[in-house]
Design a protein that fits this description.
This protein has 271 residues and is mainly α. The chain has helices spanning 3-19, 23-26, 30-58, 71-85, 97-108, 113-123, 128-132, 139-153, 157-166, 175-186, 192-221, 225-254, and strands at residues 87-88, 94-95. It contains twelve helices and two strands.
Length: 271
């Protein structure tokens, strides 16, 4: 077996836990799916941050230009960026996958307020941790983004590449598209944008992009046992973070809203 195959086999128990997670069975209700989208959109956003960190490392943007140390890595990363940052939009033109997801949320009636305010804060120069502290952001989403940036900020490019290639969006069980198709009929087609996003996601991340990300990891690790150990740690950390995220969302969906205490009766007084 190749080193990559051995690593994938090691990670399989975590992947199976994710694929069989109870969260998916909770998403057959429209309100639950809206809540899920309002949290998961932050994972769609920070996926791009992982990718951009890899692009910064290997492709660079400084002038004067100098030749990259690995043209193969540059090619693989730039192909992924092209699709993730400027994919075909169903309405014509091009859009990032984050933009497609956000538009799908709006079509379905999910709120984008929390993520929109978060992006606005970042664009205005607010530090990440301060922007994440907003009470609008669900706690599970906040913790997930923090775990992603702990990997990014580690500076360990092999762990970052492994988290990207093996710990992220390739984990979609067969039942999820079926749930969306069924709900789409109930909500008069207002899930068509999300279904398009998911179809593109499966087509690209499960095909071209997934293969390119794995090739990048093989390029980085080669035959170095220590490098593959670092890759295992990065991928496992990403999968464990996703499991915690799914647990957090599932718990939020079954937690009843806080009950209001009845007001104390006001006694009339006479002066």
């Amino acid at each position: 077996m190749s080193e990559l195959s051995v690593l994938q086999s090691t990670l399989d128990p975590f992947r199976q836990q994710l694929l069989q997670h109870r969260l998916y069975s909770q998403l057959s209700q429209a309100d639950h799916l809206r809540s899920f989208l309002e949290s998961h959109v932050f994972a769609v956003w920070d996926f791009m941050s992982l990718l951009k960190r890899l692009q910064q490392e290997f492709c660079g943007s400084a002038t004067p230009w100098t030749p990259p140390r690995s043209p193969t890595a540059v090619r693989l990363i730039n192909e992924i960026v092209l699709g993730e940052e400027s994919d075909q939009s169903p309405s014509g033109g091009y859009a990032s996958h984050f933009q497609l997801y956000r538009e799908a949320m709006q079509q379905f009636g999910a709120s984008t307020q929390a993520v929109d305010d978060f992006i606005t804060d970042l664009q205005s120069g607010t530090p990440l941790e301060q922007a994440l502290a907003s009470p609008q952001i669900p706690g599970g989403a906040r913790r997930f983004v923090q775990s992603t940036f702990a990997i990014i900020n580690s500076g360990d490019i092999i762990r970052i590449a492994a988290a990207f290639a093996l710990g992220r969006e390739t984990l979609i069980p067969d039942m999820f598209p079926q749930i969306l198709q069924g709900l789409n009929l109930e909500v008069s087609g207002r899930l068509s944008g999300l279904i398009y996003y998911l179809d593109r996601h499966i087509e690209l991340d499960g095909g071209e992009h997934g293969t390119a990300a794995e090739q990048l990891l093989v390029e980085l690790c080669g035959s170095c046992a220590d490098a593959w150990q670092q890759a295992r740690q990065g991928a496992q950390a990403a999968l464990q973070a996703r499991l915690r995220f799914w647990d957090d969302i599932a718990a939020e969906l079954v937690t009843p809203p806080p009950t209001m205490m009845p007001a104390e009766p006001v006694l009339a007084t006479h002066s």
